[in-house]
Amino acid sequence: MATVLGCAPEPTASTEPVVRGGLGISGGHTWLQLDAAELDRQMGIVAQTGATWVRIDIDWSVIEPVRGEQDWSATDRAVRAARAHNLSVLAILTYAPAWAGPHGGDGGSKTAPQPVLFGRFVGDAVDHYRDQIAHWEVWNEPNVTAFFAPKPDVATYAHLLRQAALAVRARQPHGQILVGGLAPAADDGRDIAPATFVEALYAIGAAPDFDAVAVHPYSYPELPESQSWYNAFGNLMRIRRIMDANHDTTMQLWPTEFGAPTGSGARAVSEDVQAQIIDQGLGMVAAIHDIGPVFVYSLVDAGADPHDLEDNFGLLRRDYSEKPAVTVVRNHAEVLRAGR
Questions:
Q1: 123-141, pLDDT tens digit by residue?
Q2: What are the distances in angstroms from CA 34 to CA 38, 132, 215?
Q3: d(CA 33, CA 36)
Q4: Residue 210: beta bridge partners?
Q5: 8 Å CB contact between 178 and 254
Q6: Cis peptide before 221 (omega within 30 of 0)
Q7: pTM score > 0.85 for this model?
Q8: What is the 3-state secondary structure (H, E, C) of 85-144?
């Protein structure tokens, strides 16, 4: 039996299983590294923007680095802080401890784990958070090698998805299962394009194992309406058409990461252009039928290096001062919340 460290969150009302639009913030792994006071501060800021959702990693490699010894304290802090501010949680069931690798003991956190072991962890997560969370995103960016080693494979991912679906449906019949947010990518022999990935899931019969599809429609440094080849915003409509063609016309499409980095790095944009990208993208999302909540990435700049893209996606600077994009998010929040 697993050793469970840390107290379970106090029960609250379950997240509603059916949602109509809405706006959220995807905080990345950073939220697992903050103490309770800082999490309360950040979740309070999220709520003040008008957002009603947060996207939080439920990172297996953090929770159970040693087989049978589980420590939920980091995720408990994040989930508890979100629920204290009446924010719904989209949980990313993601990454894996080394011992769960395909050959046992030789996997990295982003290596595809053994499906049965992953399913057991998903079951543990649903049991632990059944009163706080009802939306489960299976992995993060499984279509790219950087997040699904040694190489993305639709059949392998479908096995993980099946085990996750079995675990969720057995424990939480109203729970919703999302295909993990698909990253911008091309079919280059290393990564798999989002539309190709979704088409393949349908082709191998995986549709019964998911209730929605998540996509990361980044366009930076271009605006979402740009025709540039690296603008991935068009993946939303490509995947929407695939879903419709497979008779899933009312299944929701969730953009679970979207935004742009400021700073001086390659492909970074100015703070004003960041605001324009988010403004235009949120407007375009609102026009797509059966869209789920859209998540802006991220809340606060992760670091202080202006040349590092990953340090500068925040709506807020490191000192918590607001970039212009915060006003854009506030202006769109009510429209998206109403699903209009």
A1: 999 999 999 999 999 999 9
A2: 6, 20, 27
A3: 10
A4: none
A5: yes
A6: yes
A7: yes
A8: CCCEEEEEEECCCHHHCCCCCCCCCCECCCHHHHHHHHHHHHHHHCCCCCEEEECCCCCC
